[in-house]
Amino acid sequence: MKKTSNSPITLIVITTGISSVVTQLLIIREFLAQFQGNEFIIAMILFNWLIISGIGTLLAILATKGFWRATVSRLGWLSLCMVCVPGLQIMAIRYLRDYFFIHGSSVGFYPTLAYTFITITPYGLLLGFVLPYSLFVLRLKNPDYPGALIYMTDNIGDVTGGALFSFILIYLATPLQAVFLANLPLLAATCLLFISIKKHYLMVFTCAGLALAILMSGVFLERGSINTFKDKPIYYKESRYGRITVYKDKEQFTVFMDGEPLFSNQNLTIAEETVHYPMSQVDNPQNILIISAQGGMLEELKKYRAASIDYVELDPEISNVLFRFGMIKTIKGLRVINQDARAYLTKSDKIYDAIIVNLPEPETFQINRFFTDRFFSLAKQHIAKSGILSFSVKGFDNYIAEAQRQKVSSLYNTVSKHFSHVLLLPGQKIFFLCGNRLIRKDIPECLLEKKIQTSYISNSYKGNLTNERITSLNNIIDPAVPENIDESPHLMKLMFSQWFAKFSTSPNKFIVGVSILLLIYMVCIKAETFVLFSTGFMTMGSEILVIFAFQIFFGYIYLQIGLIITVFLAGLLPGAWAGEKLRGCEKNMLMIADSLLIILLCLFITGVKYGGDMLPVACFLMFGFVISMICGFQFPLVLRLQGGSNRSVTQAFSADLIGAAFGTLFTSVVLIPYLGIIWTTIGLIGLKLASLTVMAIKT
Amino acid sequence: MKKITRRRFLYYSTAILSSAMPFSPFQPRVATDSEASQYNDISGKVFKGNAPAKLWKWSCEGLFYTKLKKNRVVCGICPHHCILAPGDLSICRSRVNIGGILYSMGYGNPCSIHVDPIEKKPLFHFRPKTTAFSLAATGCNFRCLNCQNWEISQVKPWEVRHLELFPPQVIATAKQAKAKSIAYTYSEPTTFFEYMIDIARLAREQGLYNLWISNGYINKKPLLELCKVIDAANVNLKAYSDEIYRKLNGGRLQPVLNTFMTMHEQKVHFELTNLVVPGYVDDPDMAKRMCEWILKNLGPDYPLHFLRFFPKYKLDRLPPTPISTLTRFRELAMQEGIHYVYVGNVPNHEGNNTYCHNCKRLLIERKGYFIPAYNLVGNRCKFCNSIIPGVWV
After folding, report:
1. What is the model's pTM?
2. Range 591-650 of A in CB contact (< 8 A) with B
3. B369 at the A interface (CB within 8 A)?
4. Is any Cβ of chain A less than 8 angstroms from the Cβ of B186?
5. Which of A99, B5, B227, B306 lies at 20 to 30 Å from A220 by C-alpha?
6. Helices A373-381 and A402-415: crossing angle, nearest 10°?
7. Adjacent-strand bridge partners of B294
8. Confidence of residue B31 (pLDDT cuts 50, 70, 90)
């Protein structure tokens, strides 16, 4: 057998790490652009990704049984496949969406689960397979090559990929451009690998050429692939927060964010309602704050001749697009602030006569923050005595469904703690008008008194918002529904029920199926592997908790959140290095590590409960780093306890991935919405206690 | 040739069979050469074994059903002709087979009651400036992806909050609300047919008008019975395309066309509504063919409303209809020869007003639900004395 240096294989592992993390993030964003962007979908995509990678890792065991023996050239061919697949996968996700589903329709839980599962499978299996397979190839030459070393090498690639995407590619490249850039190193490493074994030159360079062509074709075909099969966008941009497209149909411009229509330049009704419902209640308004703007809103606001209008929009790309396509126009006194609105209000001491919140439906933790107790309290601090706060949620035509009723009740119970008068107005959107003095229902009359002219409200309000409709909505509030607080987002729980009700499905089959699989898995794995599973679960759960808590206290600050995610990856490497260096007492060290994780989680609870926004950002970063360091520390210990064979390596990798998959799913979808931050953390502590117990019993 | 071991054979077979499983949520799908998803059909299915074990207070024996062998029944209200075994629930979710008898579960239990301006239905040629006492029980025989009342149309009767209002109480409540009409609306009134027809008969006796707001998916016999008691109707013509009916609504086109022809024969005043869904129903050629059919089979006098689409329910990833599309469709329809064509869901559009088909003068100016100008004398144009089709105050 030809001797090969380890360097080309190590390079393959690192560049695979870079490619895989960039691809993962791109594919998640792609799915969010094609399907609903709620937390359930996000968690499900991550879950699918991690599970499939875990399965791919388990399949690598086949290689140990002589089914497909590890060779350097086979690793090379696999790597070449990995170069080609991401771009093709993203294109497939885009093109096949309208093939399997009706154009323009949103898709329910099970079809989304199936679609994401199928489209992730090729790359996910490949990715999961390649990492342990690389180890087997390395062990051809060096049978004692430590499994932990491959873990650390992969981690270098992951951290690099994560940082590259979060801080560079997201700003400079479209998805397929990012795929091209992130896979070039892997392509180069693959060529180097084949050069090092001095084999298959012609075939390799032909295939490498083909792979390069596939990568580059993605770049050229990108714009065309964004077209849905009925329309072509006139504007397309990947912002930090999602995909922005603008479609033009005759004189109408519509801005889409992740495939959902956000604003149109021809929606006078909603612009009038959003502005005039609250503004009709304010005498001589001078300072107005709008959080996110609707097409036509500023034109309506202009009628009030306010001295200052502060328009806060988190995503500067959105405000640029709205101005560019004439949906909002610069008016006297307008100031555009591109910042998270909560962060802005926390720092500002300006008092407003009206605060108008025009955000999408609270279907993610990010948006939900503007419908919570803390936000309403913050808003109240910035509203004049006779001022008004207005926000809205999705409405109904003639009957309010139970989940929506609960949602409206929760919001009402939350906001009415801060404002003595709250009026709900029904319609396509349910508007909440909140103030500290009586709020008038006779809005057309109010507008007439102010000499404000409107097209829709003056003529249609009384027919659409009859006294009977307004009264029955305001009377249907259930005072027993829990408030929506940051630490325990009740609205998210209701959002899930609403979403399932919309598609007349239930997650029960999925939950039962996943629980059975989990149970079988728990029964089959060893105690040490359970430690890795629980640590993987806990680490992902902690990451979600940290990001969640960070957003509550500091707002959605993209760069700092990107930093948190990078830090969670970066801690693995030094941890794994320390675990590899430490020899002897592996069992005890595992238990000590578990105990340290429990202590850290207890510190997190203390910090969140008593520190809150007084905690510096560094605390969150430090917490993430130490958690992932301990996670990385445990990996080589488990490998040594299990003998370090190829089989045990694949089991360890897969346990980590599967644990992370369940951690993501349960934390986002079950624990945080149903239990809140504190009890979720306690739940994670419970899991680590179980892991400690299992290890103690085994000892 | 290399032999394959038993283990490998089992492994390969399992892998192949399992790989088909994730595709099951996509069934049935047919690949076509041209437009993707061309043969989608979202029609509902009978809910096997889903009926409640016992009847409840708000049920009555159904009309127009036939008994079959083995205690099965076939419902004759709508063209789905649901065949229900004992314990089954119909496609519309409102009818059950209990012990070999078909029952409606929507009798006396309206879930939605409001008093609306009649123009909201929309009915522009029937007693303008009056109000309609509007009610609905749950259920619908369609599965429209953009349903604006899905909270009550796509649920079972026992899944919602409801009132108790039997027909005499409906009449009393409508009179108390000073409404001139009772509208059967919001969900699909065909599904609570028995309730509707009993109320309608009583309403007739009491001098109230009956308005049927429907998707028109009803069989001829029940429709003929209904035509004896309704005074006006607004029936949706979702698209002049059977393919779109199946893909977006879960129904078929021809039965709806038959409904229009029957109502025309029975001389019931009705108005047609067409929701212009971008990418599907915004094809001018289709609109033209629709107008041609209307003119050929119904004549030019039935008002046609083109409504602006807004993203809703499951069809929430499309933009709204551009206003100029509706304007264009209105012009097209009038050029084809339809006398009264309106644009809906667009405030302050010229298409909200009624113009005389003869002298083209403004007859009724509508600003939202206000009518600032009214230029009819009885049922005639004030200016040229032409008869204006409709039922006027």
Report:
1. 0.92
2. none
3. yes
4. yes
5. A99
6. 40
7. none
8. very low
- Asked whether the beta carbons of residue A399 and residue B111 sit closer than 8 angstroms, the reply is yes
Helix (H, G, I), strand (E, B) or coil at A359: coil
Candidates B286, B184, B195; CA nearest to B245 is: B286
CA distance B11 to B2: 17
The Cα–Cα gap between A310 and A288 comes to 6
d(CA A231, CA A228): 5
- The predicted pLDDT at position B13 comes to 61
Q: Taking CB atoms and an 8 Å cutoff, what residues of chain A touch B348? A: 455-456, 459
**Tokens of residue A396, six digits:** 């109904």
Two tokens, residue A225: 């692939």
Q: A400 at the B interface (CB within 8 A)?
A: yes
Q: What's the pLDDT score for residue A142?
A: 87
Q: How far is B297 from chain A (nearest CA, A)?
A: 32
Nearest residue to A668 (alpha-carbon basis) of A555, A559, A567, A547 = A547
Cα–Cα distance measured from residue A559 to residue A565, given in angstroms and rounded to the nearest whole number: 10
DSSP A166: I
Helix axes A617-641, A147-164, angle to 10 degrees: 150
Q: Which of A103, A115, A397 sits opposite B279 (nearest CB)?
A: A103
10 Å CB burial of residue B112 (0-12, 13-18, 19+) is buried
| Residue A60, pLDDT above cutoff 90 | no
Is some CB atom of chain A closer than 8 A to the CB atom of B236? Answer: no
From A113, which residue of chain B is nearest by alpha-carbon distance?
B22
Statement: residue A2 has pLDDT above 50: no
Residue A1 scores a pLDDT above 50:
no
Per the CB < 8 Å rule, is B370 touching A98? no
Other beta carbons within 10 angstroms of residue A194's beta carbon come to 24
Point out the least confidently predicted range of A553-567, B187-201, B322-336.
A553-567
- Residue A116, chain B, CB below 8 Å: the answer is no
Structure-block tokens of residue A96: 């096949």
| B347-390 per-position pLDDT tens digit | 999 999 999 999 999 999 999 999 999 999 999 999 999 999 99
**Closest in B111, B278, B316 to A260, CB measured:** B316
Q: Judge whether A491 and A481 are in contact, CB under 8 Å.
A: no
Q: In 3-state terms, what secondary structure has residue A80?
A: helix
Are the C-beta atoms of A473 and B382 separated by less than 8 Å?
A: no
Q: Give A-chain residues touching B248 at CB under 8 angstroms.
A: 102
On the question of pLDDT at A507 being above 80, the answer is yes
What would the pLDDT profile of A148-190 be if each residue is shown by its tens digit?
888 889 999 999 999 999 899 999 999 999 999 999 999 999 9
Residue A562 binned pLDDT confidence (cut-offs 50, 70, 90):
confident
Q: For residue A249, which residues of chain B lie inside 8 Å, CB to CB? A: 278, 319, 322, 325
Chain A, chain B: beta-carbon pairs less than 8 Å apart = 151
**ipTM for this prediction:** 0.92
At A154 the pLDDT is 92
Give the mean pLDDT of A435-442.
Answer: 96
Alpha-carbon span B211 to B213, nearest angstrom: 6
Closest CA to B113 of B139, B130, B134, B131: B134
The verdict on A513 touching B (C-beta cutoff 8 Å) is no
Mutate to test the interface with B, among A94, A107, A235, A398 (most CBs of B within 10 A): A398
Chain B positions in Cβ-Cβ contact with residue A115 (cut-off 8 Å): 26
Banded model confidence at residue B12, pLDDT cuts 50, 70, 90:
low
> One-letter amino acid identity for A663?
G
Q: Which stretches of A35-65 are DSSP H helices?
A: 39-64
**3 state SS of A491:** helix
